[in-house]
Amino acid sequence: MSVVLEFTLPSDSFPFGRSTSGDPSVRVQLERLVPLKESRIPFLWATGKAFDQFEQHLRDSAVVEHLEAVTRLGESVLYYVEWDTDKETFLNGLSEHDGAIMDAHGDSEWSFTVRFRSHADLTRFHQFYQAHNYPVHIDRVYAPDEASRTEYGFGLTPEQREALTMAVQEGYFSVPRETKLDEIADQLGISRQATSERVRRGAETVLRKSLIGLVAENFEPVDES
């Protein structure tokens, strides 16, 4: 039986993370597709206000061989990237242990949702990242058929789901707004900053999974001039 693992990893702890964290104001999301060539993860969505620093950092990375801006959608840009896969040790290990990335996004920290064909494959991946001292933090492990009966599968962490659900129930997204982040933070027993981050990241994850891929007809070419 297949098993799904949700985990986080600091960006500075693995080559791919370091290459995509050149600008703290830019958030990166992997395009969900199956690569047909050796270039692992050929497409990335980057969201932010300015991309000069982000692009330069990618181009200067030892694991990036080619970078090209393909499409712009509002404040998001789709990049095509060719990687030197021999130098990306963490993702190599994930692939070698038959892990299939279902969702991944990050800035200073990367969040992954990965499917393994069996618990044995997951166990081998666990042994791999421990042997190489990757600071993986496990958020959740579950069988897909179990989750499908109770959840929509948006890839939210339990903390994000709790904060986002409370924000919706308390009217944070209503017009006019019926509650404040401070009030939600008090109920959760965490700081306002932590609450804001959970709500923002949770909302972005849900919106991206709901909308990206459904708006292709509205894509605009990137102005390269």
Distance between the termini: 51 Å
Give the strand line-up of the largest sheet.
Answer: 8-1-7-6-2-3-5-4-9
Number of helices: 8
How large a portion of the residues is in β-strands, by DSSP E?
A: 25-35%
Helix content: 25-40%
Give a count of the beta strands, DSSP E runs of length 2 or more: 9
Largest sheet: 9 strands, antiparallel
Secondary-structure element series: EHEEHEEHEEHEHHHHE
Form type: globular
| Overall pLDDT | 81
Q: How many domains, as an integer?
A: 2
Over the alpha carbons, how many angstroms does the gyration radius reach? 18 Å
Give the low-pLDDT segments. Answer: 147-152, 213-225
Helix- and strand-based class? alpha+beta
Protein name: Helix-turn-helix domain-containing protein
InterPro entries: BAT_GAF/HTH-assoc, HTH_bacterioopsin, RNA_pol_sigma_r3/r4-like, WH-like_DNA-bd_sf
Domain HTH bat-type: 156-206
Keywords: Transcription, Transcription regulation
Explain how this protein is built.
Residues 156-206 form the HTH bat-type domain. There is one protein chain. Mean pLDDT is 81; it is low at 147-152 and 213-225. α7 (181-188) packs across α8. The longest helix is centred in the C-terminal third of the chain and has 20 residues, at 192-211. A hairpin with a 2-residue loop joins β4 (64-73) and β5. The protein has two domains: 3-143, no CATH class; 158-216. It is an alpha+beta fold and 225 residues long. The protein has a nine-stranded antiparallel beta sheet. The termini are far apart. It has helices at 15-19, 52-60, 89-96, 119-131, 144-148, 158-169, 181-188, 192-211, and strands at residues 3-10, 27-30, 43-47, 64-73, 76-83, 99-106, 109-116, 137-142, 220-221. The protein contains eight helices and nine strands. It is globular and about 50 Å long.
